[in-house]
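As a warm-up, study this chain.
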Amino acid sequence: MTVTAAVAFVITWSSGFLIAAFGTVDVSALTLLVWRFVPLAVVLLAVVIATGAARGVTPRELGTQAAIGLFAQFGYCAAVYGAVASGIATGTVALIDAVQPLVVAALVGPILGLRVRGAQWAGLALGALGVALVVHSQFGSSSAPPAAYLLPAAAMVCLVIGTLLQRRSPVRTGMLVTLTVHLTVTAVLLLGIALVTGDLVPPAAPGFWLAVVLAAVFPTLAAYGLYWWLLRRVGITALQALLFLIAPATALAGALLLGEPLTALTVIGFALCGGGVAVVLAGERQERAEATAEEPESSGERRTAQGRTRTARPSNATTSPSCS
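Now compare it with the structure written out below.
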């Protein structure tokens, strides 16, 4: 189930870049984002109220999730759509976004108090090299102004902040409530901005509404939900390694659907990305195996003490949102 979820995560997350490219050809990125989030937020709010899923959730927990959603959903999506709409190739946006794993790996120790092994650093570096090769030919091929390249960088920073906030928080709201809060905060902010800028009224073109539905289902519900579920399931380091596959998948789809270049260098990059992911995941498996072998069954206190010095790995004590 975890492998299937990881594959689905890569595919659905990559689809967000492509949908943004198709959906913003004849309409502003803000208009597409508003109609992607507002109806979905209304539906989820109705479901939460009808099911009582938010029963027992405190204002503090709602505030924490709202702060996470501000960065991981609103900030990330607005910057990505702005970058694609400005003319930056989807593979290039995905490349800059894929730098996130190295940033998180550099911060995971001092911020979360966890250790990242040398083999995991090597895997992350190998994956970064693969990503760079995959989209190397796309740099300089767009008409976007240089300042526009700050947008995908801002998207990466927002997702890093949201991820680290979530990992440091003791809040454990259910997945439905978590998604609802994140989407509602994003919808309210987008709606307010669209009202001020005059980008609220949608076009009547069927293609626009198809893009809205696809964006709501795949990169929003599916990919975003899988992101937090996998964060709980496989740990932060393994999840960041999986993010390296987003750029190759986007570049491949861009070649097939948008006519972006796909060369032998791209194939080599694919292989390096896959190798980097394999190294990191192997390190995670070895870490869990060693931890299991060292922890005596009868000593709960020792297990707790050892767990605090281990590399980021899945455990029942994770601070990720519950998938129940």
